[in-house]
Structure formats: C-alpha cells, structure tokens
Amino acid sequence: MRGWARNDEVGNVMTESGENRELKRILVVSQHFWPESFRINDICDSFVEHGFEVDVLCGIPNYPKGQFFDGYGYFKNKRQTVNGMKVRRCIEIKRGNNSNIRIFLNYISFPATSIFSLPYLMRQKYDKIFLFQTSPVMMSLAGILLGKLKKIETTMYVLDLWPENLYSVLNIRNRMLRKFMHSTSNWYYRNTNKLIANSQKLMELLKERTNKEDSHIVYIPQFCEKIYETSIDDAELKARFSETFNMVYTGNISPAQSFETVIEAAKILKSKGYNDIAWIIVGDGMSKSWLEGEVQKGDLSDNFIFIGHVPIEEVPKYTNIADGLFACLSKIELLDATIPAKTFSYYAAGRPMALAMDGEIQQIIQESKAGYAVDTEDSAGLADAVAKLHDASEDERKAMGESAKKYYFKHFERNLNMKKLIDFMFDDGGA
C-alpha cells in the first residue's frame, strides 16, 4: 500500500506512477468508537489518511460512565458520517452503574444486535475487514460472519486477551463457565484470518491457541495518537501543583488497574514522611467511587486529586506537570501478556515511570531506562520506585524522560506502526 495518496475524485486513488485505481474499502467492527476515547478512532483516521474508504460498525457510546453520550440513544444518531467515514451504530445495553450484571448485558448485547446488520453489509463491497478487539471478544461476531459469508479476509487487533481480561472485571469462579469462555474466546481467534498482538508474549500465546502460521500473526504495539507526543503548558495548572511532587495517572479506573496497590503504596510513602506527593488521577471508570472511598478511609484525601475524564487533547497538560507517571495491573492469569495502552502514551509524553506490572513491560522499562517497573500488586515495590523518582535530581528524571521519548520514536511511534499494520492487512502472500 505504500506510495498511495488521496485523490479528490471519490472512489479512486492516484498512485505515484499516476495510475488511477479503485479506492480500497475497509469495514471496521468495534463496539467502541468516537465520541468514546479509544485508539480505534485514530486508526480509522489513519486509514482515511492512507487513502482508504472506511465504514464503521459500532455501538452506542456510553463508556466509561455507563450512560449514553448527549445526542445518542436507541433511536438517535444511529447513522452518521464522521470524518468521511460511514458509521452504523447497533443497539447495545448501556453499562449503567457498571455492576456485574450490567457489564454482562452490555457485553452480550452488541454482538447479538450487530448480526442484524448482516443483510445490509452483505450488499456492500469490502476489500478487508478490521476487527478492533478490546472487551468483549464477542464484539467481532458480525465481522467474522461477514468475512466467512463473502470470503473477505479479516484481521483482528487483539488488545484484551480473553477470557483472562474478563476475569479482571467479573469474578467468575465456576469451572464449567470458565471452560466455556475459554473455548468461546478461542473460536473467535481461530476464525479470524490474521491476528495482531500488542506484545511479543501475547503473539506467542495466540500462536499456541490457534495453531496459525507465523505469517498470519504479527506483533505491533498499541501505538498512541500523535497528540500524546506534545507538551502543553498550562500556567494555571502549573501554579496549582507547583509545591508538590506530582505522580500522574491517565486512563480508565477499573479493577484491572489494581488501585489497591496504589493506595497501599501511598500509605507507605506517607508513613515515611513523603507528604508532598500528589497522586493526580486523570480519568474515570467503574471503580472511581470505590477509589474515592478508599482514599478517604486511608486518610489520603490531601494526597489524591481526581481530575475526572478529559478529552485526549487535554491529557498533555497533565503529563506536562508530571514528575512521574504511574500505573498498575491486577494479578490475573495471563493478563501480563498484554501491555496497557497508557504505557505507550506515557512513553510518548517523555516522563519517567513507576509501574507495578508483570511481564514484558518490565524488560522494556529496563531496556529503555525510562524509570522503574516492579511486580504486579507489589505495593512496597511501587512505593520504593516512587521514592526513587522523588529523591532523584531533576536532571536524572529528565534523562529518564528523554530516554523514554527516544525509545518511543524508535519502537512505538504511530506512523511507523500504522504502516506495519496496513502492510500486514494487505499482504495477501500468506493469506
């Protein structure tokens, strides 16, 4: 696909040689899409930038608060055009209060209703189908069925490993149900033509589960939007946090992020006299109310600041005031095979990191010299990592941040990895 550019004539592209070719058309299937803040938005924009016509099959935006966004509902804005992309929204049950039953209903409603779009999709002509697989894995159902019925190659970007990621949100102990979820998840992975993994470990795991050939599975990191590379100065924000050592978190607040580890680390640091640390939480999610309660119980209200959800364009204002960036994961079987999306945006921000995560990320942090990574749920280790950042000189922290940025442009940068993704999708040699 290299060397293609958009032409003003809709339905065609012009190659570098001047040859006029029919515009390639991609169907994207993702339960989550704009105005929700997911990386699929940027991937779709990039498809358009590279000269593709894009249709999107998605749900009704209600993540993370569980309520439909303004202007959306069961009968509102079901068909849209967004940045030149045709968007078709299927009914899904909103997450509501994010209870187990509401999340379960949300998870099953989109794949169930998406199949009613098949008669319409069958009449369309698509060159490729792209499946953006966060949770649930079942969200890809309509895309897989369409691919089989019309013999269109499907490519799934696996970002949440199922059913392991499910267990980080819902406490499922029943052995038979877990076995059923494992076999169901494997069906989706095996019935997709090509798989993209966001870590080397996940790629190897998917090979074992699917027995796919090497040419049908590739590792591409979950690259972030270019906006995260920027540094936005906000004088008011700088003044507000000028007297504190600022540890910043950006992203979703859910059980998978193990904020229990953060709370315990904050208690340890406070007991050791690190009273100037501000834990700044930029984001929202199903565990936010619980976290606010734990902060109060732990007498940490002076140390934790909840900013709430902000548009991604504003995130660099907060990473810009960060002395360090932090994140954790819960200890769930094989959850360490995936690397959280926020890790890549942290690298783009060019700030030192303190992470409590098992798996590949520890090697990456060590190799890039971008901060410290300790074991999952190791609150003492996280406290020690934050203390090291606190006690380091400004020049030392700056050097870590510069190392992170350098590593980002070499391995994680958006345009570099988007090209890999498109080349993999449209390489028909091994399909």
List keywords for this structure.
431 residues; alpha/beta; Rossmann fold; 2 domains; 8-stranded mixed β-sheet; 6-stranded parallel β-sheet; 17 strands; 39% helix; globular
Write the layout of secondary structure elements.
Blueprint: E1 4-6, E2 12-15, E3 20-22, E4 25-29, H1 40-49, E5 53-58, E6 79-82, E7 85-89, H2 100-114, H3 118-122, E8 128-133, H4 141-150, E9 154-158, H5 164-167, H6 175-190, E10 194-197, H7 200-210, E11 217-219, H8 235-240, E12 245-250, H9 259-271, E13 277-282, H10 288-297, E14 304-306, H11 315-320, E15 324-328, H12 341-349, E16 353-356, H13 360-368, E17 371-374, H14 379-391, H15 394-411, H16 414-425
Parallel strand pairs: 4-5, 4-8, 5-7, 8-9, 9-10, 10-11, 12-13, 12-15, 13-14, 15-16, 16-17
Antiparallel strand pairs: 1-2, 2-3, 6-7
Helix pairs in contact: 9-14, 12-15
